[in-house]
Predict the 3D structure of the following.
Amino acid sequence: MWELIRVNRRNSILLMAVMAGCLVGLGAALGGGFAGQDGLVGGIAVALAVWAVLAMISLTAGDQILLSSSQAVPITPEIHPQLFNVVEELKIAAGLPVLPKIYMIHDPTLNAFATGRSPKSASVAITSGLLARLNRDELQGVMAHEISHIVHRDILFVTLAGVMLGSVVLLSRIFLRSTYYGSMGSRRRYSSRGSQGGAQAQAILFVIAILAAILAPILVQIFYFALSRQREYLADAGAARLTRYPEGLASALEKIAGNTAPLSTANEVTAPMYIDTPFRGGRALHLFSTHPPVEERIRILRSMSQGAALKDYVKAYRQTMGSETGLPLSVRKDTESVDLRAGSSDRSTPANEKTARRQMNDWARRASGFLFLPCSCGVTLKIPPNYSAGNVDCPRCGTRLTIPR
Amino acid sequence: MDCPVCDKAMITAELHEVEVDYCASCNGIWLDAGELEILLGDPKQADSAVSSFQPVSGANHPVRKCPICRKKMEIVDTDGTGVVLLDRCRLHHGLWFDRGELPTILQRTSLDSSGRIRTLLEELFIRNPGKE
């Protein structure tokens, strides 16, 4: 494991350095373009300052930014006792110093992620859609995969990359907008003559916009490397070891792969990244895809017949993939033995999926401050926290209900 | 979620384990694609119910924004005559019914093949004292 942790540290530093280099280059181009020699120094100074602020923010609040931008709400044991129970078990099994903070994202898609700076300040988040569809063994598999990311220190790098990527995308949007509106304004104001300075500034902004537009997909690629295939395989191996039941994660992955939920806001943010990737098609796609094909991951997990240790995962990996070159040496040399356990008796999915999904949505709403008003006619009214009136009429029977605030 | 017409917070009404959002001040109704999936039990059916309508252009109808993605919704024709219109999110997040649109639409179309959407909306929003 130490090898992994070292690689993650090195990558995090590398990422910060690349980011600093890009910003300094931009600052130099901008400053030099506007004000020659003096501007060059100023531009670099400003760029370094921006970098320092960015680095501070992503190191101290990166996880909070990612969590709040995905609209994750912290949940309590009362809301989902089973989830807390599962995470507590895994915390002990993985030897984490503290219980990771647990968040839920109110979204019908099936997903989960881990973020944070270190095992001492880590968070896991899961969508209400996924929570509603998994049985205990599957939930344990998914959470063990995320907790393995925490143990392997994948989270720091991914969090840094996510925040950096987000800010570059934001910057490139600001620049693109400003060139757009800038050109509109100048067309109106200086209809025929044009202004020398304005045109120059515009040209520079345009160059920056293009640079940012080029930079963003490259950073997306770094982000994808962050979630590289090797990390995913290793988190799967870690999950099998922690749960001693590879089938749990395998069947959860099957559910995630088979789902065709309608487009949500979360997908909308990630979809452009997929389309924009400059390395499309053929071999490149194979090299640059981040998550290994889910069928392969399922097949490896399912062929772990002799044990749940890392060496058993390596063996199953070799059987499925033909070689073990995708795995780091320390994992291949691991000798610890871990026995498989039997699946728990509760193998069924939540009995009624419709009810389970409704419950999960309700928990998510309660967690974000909704008030629930049952009307005697059978309708339940759910009042959002920003609803200002003191009472509400039931749309079905017309009864006036008072909102207790 | 805020009302696309008056920007006020919408109330969610749940009946038979399905939620419908509505605005208490303008009486508009938001039918969410995820809820349609729960109601019809199948994402494909839910999507076909949303995508069955033809978009119309140049209609005398204000443009609304989808309460989920805040993008402009398209105006669709519910019965082929171009008279009864409703708003649909271009990303298929759901359907928006303005005040007054609902009774006419429910009279003319059932919205899905099984008629379950119509039954639910009638039960929730069309008050019929004789029936209760």
